[in-house]
Fold Co-chaperonin GroES.
Amino acid sequence: MLQPLGDRVIIEITKPKEQTVGGIVLASNAKQKPQTGTVVAVGPGKLGADGKTIKPSVKKGDEVLYDKYSGTSVKYDGKSLLVLHDKDIAAIVK
Amino acid sequence: MLQPLGDRVIIEITKPKEQTVGGIVLASNAKQKPQTGTVVAVGPGKLGADGKTIKPSVKKGDEVLYDKYSGTSVKYDGKSLLVLHDKDIAAIVK
Amino acid sequence: MLQPLGDRVIIEITKPKEQTVGGIVLASNAKQKPQTGTVVAVGPGKLGADGKTIKPSVKKGDEVLYDKYSGTSVKYDGKSLLVLHDKDIAAIVK
Amino acid sequence: MLQPLGDRVIIEITKPKEQTVGGIVLASNAKQKPQTGTVVAVGPGKLGADGKTIKPSVKKGDEVLYDKYSGTSVKYDGKSLLVLHDKDIAAIVK
Amino acid sequence: MLQPLGDRVIIEITKPKEQTVGGIVLASNAKQKPQTGTVVAVGPGKLGADGKTIKPSVKKGDEVLYDKYSGTSVKYDGKSLLVLHDKDIAAIVK
Amino acid sequence: MLQPLGDRVIIEITKPKEQTVGGIVLASNAKQKPQTGTVVAVGPGKLGADGKTIKPSVKKGDEVLYDKYSGTSVKYDGKSLLVLHDKDIAAIVK
Amino acid sequence: MLQPLGDRVIIEITKPKEQTVGGIVLASNAKQKPQTGTVVAVGPGKLGADGKTIKPSVKKGDEVLYDKYSGTSVKYDGKSLLVLHDKDIAAIVK
C-alpha cells in the first residue's frame, strides 16, 4: 500500500489512453493534458500559515478531474496510480 | 456534474470560434486569447492568510470575460466547459 | 457594461496608434509600450494581508498612463477598452 | 502634469546620452545602464505588510542615481521623463 | 555517519537501475524519475512560520517513494545514499 | 557625495583588475566574480516584516568581500564605486 | 580573517579535485557537484519572520557535505575557502 504524505493524493487513473470517462471527453489545452481518475488514498494534509492542518479537499472513492502533467506515476498491483498534490485536482465528477 | 474545488469556477464557453458575444468583439493581446462564457459552477473558495475562506467573486449565471489560456477544458453533455481559477476572470458582462 | 473584478480597472484607450495625447509623446522602453487612456470602470479592490480591501488608486474619468503590455483588450460598443490591474497604472495625467 | 501612483517616482533625465552629470561618469555593469536624473514628482507611497503607507525615500528636487532599465519613459513639455519605482533608485547625489 | 540538517532526509537507494521494488514498477513522467529507497537518517526539522519546528514526515526504516531529481547523491560505506528534502518524498510504501 | 538608499551600501573597489587584496587571491565560481572593496557609505536600512528598520550589517571603513555581479558601478572623483545591497556582501575581511 | 555575514558559513574545502573524504566518494547529480569541507567560520545568523535571529546549524570544526555550486570561493593564506549560506549545507559528516 502507498500512503501519501502531506497534501498528496493517490489516484487510480481511468483509461488514460481513451480519455473518456462517464461521458466526459477531455480536450487538452496548451501544456495541459487533463485526465480523470478515482482517489485511492489521501494524505493527512499540510500545515497552513496559522499552524493548523489543511486537509485535502477530496476523499477516497471520489472521481476527480486533475489538470496538469504532475505527480509521480506508479504501477502497483497492476494498477496505474498517480501521486499528486491536492491543488492539482480541478473538480470532482458527481 | 462537475463540482469545482477551491477557488475554481466552471464556465460554459460561448462561441469560442467567433469571439463575439452580445456585441463584444474580443481582440487578443500578446500571449492572451480573451473569451467570454457563462458561469455554471463555483467552488467553495480558498483559504486566505487569516484562515477565513475567500469566496469566488462570480456566481452561477454570470456572463464573464476571462483573460488567459488557463484552466482545463472539458466537453460534458455536449457543452464546452472550462475549469479555471477565480483570479483569471477579468470582468462580469452586465 | 463590463464590471471589472478585484483590483482591475477598465480603460478606454485614446489613440493607441499615434501615441500622442494632450501634448504627451510616449517613447517605448525595452519590452514596454506605454500608452494613455481614460478610466471607464473600476473594480471593488482586492484583499490586503490584513483582510481589508485595498481600493484601486484611480477613479472613473481619470486620464492615466499605464506601463505594460498587460490586460485584456476588448472592443465594446465601438470603443477600444483594456482591462488591467491597478498596479499596472503608472501615473495620472492632470 | 503627471501624478505618479503608489511608490512610483517621476524623474527628469539629465543628459541620458553623455552619462556625465556633476562630475560623475557612469560605467554600466552587465544588464544595467545606470543613469542620473532629478526627481520631479513623487507618489503617495505603497502599503506595507502592517497596513501603513511607506513613503518613497526621495523628494522633489533630489538628484538621484537609478540602477536599471526600468519604468516608462515619457516626453512631456519637451522634457525626458522616467516613471519608475522607488526601489529602483540606488542613491541620492549630494 | 551522515547527519542531515533541517528538513533533510537521507535515503539508501534500492536498485536504482531496475526501478522495481516490492512489486512496484515505476514509470517516469516528464522531467521526473521516480525511485524508492529506505530512510537511514532524518534531520531535526525546519522552522515553521510560527517559530515551531516542523519535523520530517518519515522515520528511519520507512520505505519511501520520492518524486524528483533532487538532493545530493553520496556513496558511503558502499551504499548509494541520497540526501533530499522532506517535501520531495511523495509516499510511504507499506 | 552619494547617499545610498534603503539597504544599499557603497563600496570603493580595490584593484578590481588584479583581484588580490591583503593576501587574498579570489577565484571566481560559475557566474560569480568575487571582489573586495572598502565601504564608503551605508544606507539607513530597510523595513523588516515587523515594521522595524533592519540596518545594513557593515559600517563605513569595513573591508568586505561581495559575491555577485550586482549593483551599479559609478566613477566619482576618480574612485571606482559600487552601489550594492547589503545582502550581496558575503564577509568582512579582518 | 574572514567574518561571514548573516546566515553565511565559511568552509575550508577538502581535496576538491579528488572528491573522496573519509571514505566518502561523491557522485554528482544533474546540475550538482557535491563536496565536503570543514567549517572555519560561522555568521551570526539571519532574522526569522518573528524578528528573532536564526543561527546557522553548523559550528566551527564540523565536517560538512554541501550540495550546490554556491557561494564565493576564496584563496586565503593558502587555503581554499568557500563562503556559502547555511541552507546550502546538506549534512554533517560524523
